[in-house]
Amino acid sequence: MSDIFQFNGAEGSGWSQPEPIIDDSLNTVPVSLRRSNLPRWPRASEPELVRHYTLLSQRNFGIDTGFYPLGSCTMKHNPRINERIVQLPGIDRIHPLQPEHQIQGLLSIYFEMQEMLEICAGMDQVTLQPVAGAQGEFTAIRCIQEYHRSNGDYQRDKVIVPDSAHGTNPASAAMCGYEIVEIPSGDDGRLDLDALRAAVGEDTAAMMITNPSTLGIFEPEIAKAAEIVHSAGGQMYYDGANFNAILGKTDPGRMGFDAVHYNLHKTFSQPHGGGGPGSGPIGVKEHLAGFLPSPIADREVAEDGGVTGDGYRYFWRTPDSTIGKVQQWHGNAGAVVRSWAYYRRYGKELELMSEHAVLNANYLRHQIMNANSDKRDAIHCMPVDGAPAEVVKHEFTLSMQPLKETTGVTGKDVAKRLLDYGYMSPTLYFPMIVPECLMIEPTETESREVLDKFAEDFLTILSEDPELVQTAPHDTDVRRVDEVLAARSLVLRKEFD
Questions:
Q1: Could you report how far apart the first and last alpha carbons of the chain are, in Å?
Q2: What pLDDT is attached to residue 497?
Q3: Is residue 209 predicted with pLDDT exceeding 50?
Q4: % of the chain residues with pLDDT over 90
Q5: pLDDT tens across 54-85, in order?
């Protein structure tokens, strides 16, 4: 990989620095704080520097460079118009400590985004403060926790999660001090209501569940599950990671949920990957609204018509029994504005987004599972194999276990080989209830031609020489690495000679 320190121009060239702001002619800076040697700045000219970073970008893979079927992460196209809007004057250079009268435009966007998210999820109040999906989970569970405490229900110390749940669900609940109760899925991969009935009780604080699940299937009896949990005094939490599959068709409020988190960086097209930026707002029913983190955007009628011309004055409001803050400012403003622009652009057409996401997933699943291939029997579609009537939602899972048993080729081997064909790997080994799992989500923004080519290449890999697949990737800048060594022996800084 290119190393910026390989550039060595003339001494003192390739960088500039302002004059010192402190006159140290009197030697006021302690000797212990002074440099003994000049800093090791790379001495690169501007074209060398541009070429260095351009080269690095070409070695990276992203949604703008190829098909990215990362299951459960909804890596779809990010409309560029959103970037233009978020960079408009009055939006892109606002300081979080500016007074309210100077940021009326941004506050009106926040308020409108809260309202739009409330409507699409069937909730009564939304906060935009959490800056990640997992932080949204944590925030929602904290609100539920304070709700129980306000009712004197201190004995509620357990949170129920299905075995197909995202790993962040039990982690978020555990961070709030809850004990996790895992319930198994039924043979069809769906929620086992009998197991749920056996798990609930006076110590149940909440149930956390994704619908559709990580298997890509919808829970048709979710309302019954909510009734079971509510009858025991617990609350229902909706993990919105897969909201992309149902938007406009149904909503968590109708299903019986009390709280939900949204991934603006999934459903509403805010770019993500590589560690951020993300945004994980939460919506809650009225009985939980008073516990939301502070502040949230609100408005009142303005006698002068308001700065924005809509007749309102916007301001920050603190909920009565707020849990405090979960993020230092007011949420990821850039992510909120991009997602607001996306929502305003498509509105009710977002229902079409969900339809296309479901259509693409089922089409790709059919192309892989029903192709005329001698390797068709090397994979299983989970949880229901060989049942063409079974409709998945936005994603589906494949088990490479039969392939591993007959050839020794694992799911990881197939995922690595896909890199040679120019694709990002699907999600690997999750959910863990599917052996040798690959979870594939094509999203709504890919064309039929892309899906056909992916299915063709995927089946080709299953027919390749096992040794070729097991030693993949072969055409990437970095070959297969020792993952255990890489995880345990991190190299986080440049070592100079």
A1: 17
A2: 64
A3: yes
A4: 68
A5: 888 888 888 888 999 999 889 999 999 999 99
Tokens for 415, please give them. 């995922």
pLDDT band at 18 (very low <50, low <70, confident <90, very high): confident
| Cβ–Cβ < 8 Å for 451, 443 | no
| pLDDT at 188 (0 to 100) | 83
Q: How far apart are CA 110 and CA 88, in angstroms?
A: 16
Identify the CA nearest to 384 among candidates 497, 217, 253, 259.
217
* Token pair 């120019």: residue: 422
Domains in the chain (CATH in brackets) are: 1-59 (no CATH), 81-349 (3.40.640.10), 352-483 (3.90.1150.10)
Question: What's at 455, amino acid-wise?
Answer: A
For residue 418, pLDDT over 70 is answered with yes
Q: Where are the alpha helices (DSSP H) in 423-482?
A: 448-463, 466-470
Cα–Cα distance, 197 to 15 (Å, whole number): 67
Average pLDDT over residues 108-113: 97
Give the separation between CA 453 and CA 398, rounded to whole angstroms.
18
Query: In what helix (H) or strand (E) does residue 227 lie, and over which residues does it extend?
Result: helix 222-231
| Residues 443, 446, 447, 448, CA torsion sign | negative
457 — phi, psi (to 5°)?
-70, -35
Is residue 299 within a helix (H) or strand (E), and if so which, with residue range?
strand 296-301
Q: Which of 216, 206, 227 is nearest to 185 (CA)?
A: 216
More confident residue, 92 or 100: 100
- Answer whether 94's CB lies under 8 Å from 349's CB: no
Look up the pTM and report it: 0.90
Q: Are 376 and 369 within 8 A, CB to CB?
A: yes
Cα distance between residue 343 and residue 316, in whole Å:
22
Q: What residues contact 31, with CB distance under 8 A and at least 6 apart?
A: none
Tell me the residue type at 485: L
CB contact at 8 A, 144 and 178: no
